Amino acid sequence: NQAAPGIPVPMLMAVAAFSGLLLGALNGVFIWGLGIPAIVVTLGSLTIYRGVIFLIAGGQWVNADAFSPSFIAFTRIEVLGLPLLVWYAVVIVVAFVVLMSRTALGRSFYAVGVNPTAAVYAGINVGRTTFLAFCISGLLSGFCGYLWVSRYVIVSVGVARGYALTGVGSWRIGGLL
After folding, report:
1. pLDDT tens-digit series, residues 35-86
2. Quick one: average pLDDT of 9-26?
3. Strand 82-83 to 78-79 pairing
4. Which pairs from 70-77 meet CB under 8 Å and 24+ separation?
5. Is the dihedral of CA 171, 173, 175, 177 positive or negative?
6. Residues 6+ apart with CB under 8 A from 5
């Protein structure tokens, strides 16, 4: 944000979310279009994206002095006594409850996740559904990336490095791999 301090925070949030959407869509294309297993694409792209960020940042950390006060303050706002981060979480959870329980796309997500072969016989386009899941995941990842940076005021490819293993472990324990 130091390079262009005049950019409004909502625009930065939108750029972060859209960047995540594009990267999630790229992952979805590799899975859907090339038939590469999702776990391979996810972990491989994680490594590639971290490497690109490392090169862009020149291997340096970006600390609080590189961010504008408005960038940092936005996630510290309180509404009705609760931090804005809590309200974001509530809105996202409610949106997903509605998506998963009230829409055909949500039912398709369930079907593809439980049994992709049966989903094909039910007329669900498994590739398209998987692509859309990766797009939504990327969009939220980009948005949450902005929230993380704004809240903790540090950017480095080493931050949250162990979370990938935690995620894969939870998927495996849940029986999704």
Report:
1. 888 888 888 888 888 888 888 877 777 766 666 777 777 777 788 888 888 8
2. 89
3. antiparallel
4. 70/9, 71/1, 71/9, 71/12, 71/150, 72/150, 72/153, 74/9, 74/150, 75/147, 75/150, 75/151, 76/151
5. positive
6. 68
Residue-level pLDDT at 177: 47
Between residues 80 and 174, the one the model is more confident about: 80
Cα distance between residue 119 and residue 96, in whole Å: 21
User: Scanning the structure block, which residue is given the tokens 């939220």?
Assistant: 140
13 Cβ neighbours under 8 A, 6+ residues apart:
143, 146
What DSSP element (H or E) covers 175? Answer: none
Structure tokens at 128: 């398209």
User: What crossing angle do the helices spanning 104-114 and 126-152 adopt, rounded to 10°?
Assistant: 100
State which amino acid sits at residue 31. Answer: I
pLDDT of residue 17: 92
pLDDT digits (tens, 9 = 90+) for 114-166: 888 898 999 899 889 989 999 998 999 899 888 887 777 777 666 666 666 67
3-class DSSP assignment, residue 159 = coil
Q: Comparing C-alpha atoms, which of 10, 42, 18, 46 is closest to residue 139?
A: 18
Q: Which residues contact 96 (CB under 8 A, 6 or more apart)?
A: none
